[in-house]
Write a structure and sequence with these properties.
three-stranded antiparallel sheet; 8 strands; 11% strand; globular; DNA_primase_ssu_euk/arc; DNA_primase_S
Length: 405
């Protein structure tokens, strides 16, 4: 993979924002069909510039406005906020208390560092293909629930550019939710006979990954230090038996097998643990961990798709839900690789470019199609098409209803 040098970032960003950033699709997304007056104009953007200079409450009239400003500022990072009652860039002129966040997509932020207590291969900002499976499981579990349990159709999953994933749920009904929802999901796992269908379905997803991920790649029962963490999750009545069995076994796979057999044979009378015990451990090690504040606060900002991660140089690209298992964060294009893929403009071309008319420039914008960013923009366009299709359906339904009156 192309090596990225952070010192080159300012120059690379100029090229990226001038020739590669998908402004048209981006505007189509955040304008949501322009049905709601001023929807785009009232959206907050925030830019982080070089040396961590942070500018909040940016807002723009239209795509052109946004484009010009981004090309002027070349932000290191772009965050998207809520849609406010007034234009965010005029928030100082609004009388106190009147400037309010009104709606926003429901967002989820899943960060690998929140799994540090259960992954052994890496810690803090580092990731590898062995622990990336945690993100795959998280996407599958949360996406299935959003789609099947809640009926949300428009879910945009985006790689953060370094060690996590974000989800934007964009259905109209969910954008109108106030910031009331959200419970702390970090609670340790306790199951009983009445297992919620959501948990049962999540277990079914985890089961597909558990053996390879937890027992082989993470080797969670490799030695005493590690199996003690699992003993802490099970009733004391079986501690001695487990210790004995674990010492006689030779691998995490064998130890897990021993634990399962012991639990099912004993079905321990006093501590009702049944098959749930094994599920509790699986959930403890594999269940999605969310940064709940991001989902709960309507005025919370979240990193924008197609932003560039200043440390890794990787671009925050949409993830194709049909190919979640194939998604590999290490093959995501970096800003250096896509800029290099653009035919390097010779000086002559540069001069020609400066003398081009508006319409000639408009036709050249498709530069990203020559780079490895193209398939990711295609995923984004697919998402937009579905969004627009269902919006047209809603409008038709509305007009039919009005005809009936």
């Amino acid at each position: 993979m192309e090596s990225f040098d952070p010192a080159e970032l300012p120059e690379l960003l100029k090229l990226y924002y001038r020739r590669l950033f998908p402004y048209a699709q981006y505007y189509r997304w955040l304008n949501y069909g322009g049905v709601v007056k001023n929807y785009f104009q009232h959206r907050e953007f925030s830019f982080t510039l070089k040396d961590d200079i942070y500018i909040r409450y940016q807002s723009f009239n239209n795509q052109n406005d946004l484009e010009k400003e981004m090309q002027k500022m070349n932000p290191y990072k772009i965050d998207i906020g809520a849609v406010y009652s007034h234009r965010p860039n005029q928030h100082n002129t609004v009388k106190l208390g009147a400037f309010q966040a009104q709606e926003k997509e429901l967002v989820f932020d899943i960060d690998m560092t929140d799994y540090d207590d259960v992954r052994r291969c890496c810690s803090s900002a580092d990731i590898c293909s062995k622990c990336w499976t945690l993100m795959t499981m998280a996407i599958r579990i949360i996406d299935r629930a959003l789609k099947e349990d809640f009926g949300f159709k428009h879910r945009l999953w985006v790689y953060s550019g370094r060690r996590g994933v974000h989800c934007w749920v964009c259905d109209e009904s969910v954008r109108k939710l106030s910031s009331a929802g959200g419970q702390d999901v970090k609670k340790k796992v306790h199951l009983s006979e009445k297992i919620h269908p959501f948990v049962r379905r999540s277990i079914n997803i985890i089961k597909k990954y558990f053996e390879k991920y937890a027992l082989v790649d993470q080797d969670i029962l490799e030695n005493k230090e590690n199996w003690d963490k699992i003993l802490a999750l099970v009733p004391e009545a079986i501690h001695d038996d487990l210790q004995k069995g674990f010492q006689q076994s030779h691998s995490s796979l064998q130890r897990w097998d021993y634990l399962r057999k012991l639990v099912s044979s004993q079905n321990i009378k006093n501590d009702k643990c049944g098959p749930w015990l094994e599920w509790e451990i699986m959930l403890q090690y594999c269940f999605p961990r969310l940064d709940i504040n991001v989902s709960k606060g309507i005025n919370h900002l979240l990193k924008s798709p197609f932003s560039v991660h200043p440390k890794t140089g990787r671009i925050s690209v949409p993830i194709d839900l049909h190919k979640v298992d194939q998604f590999d964060p290490f093959t995501v294009p970096t800003i250096s690789s896509v800029c290099r893929e653009l035919d390097v403009i010779s000086t002559g071309e540069k001069e020609k470019e400066e003398n081009e008319t508006e319409s000639e420039i408009k036709h050249k914008i498709r530069d990203y199609k020559k780079t490895s960013l193209a398939p990711y923009i295609k995923v984004f366009e697919q998402f937009l098409e579905n969004l627009e299709r269902s919006r047209k359906g809603e409008l038709l339904k509305k007009s039919d209803l009005e005809k009936d009156f």
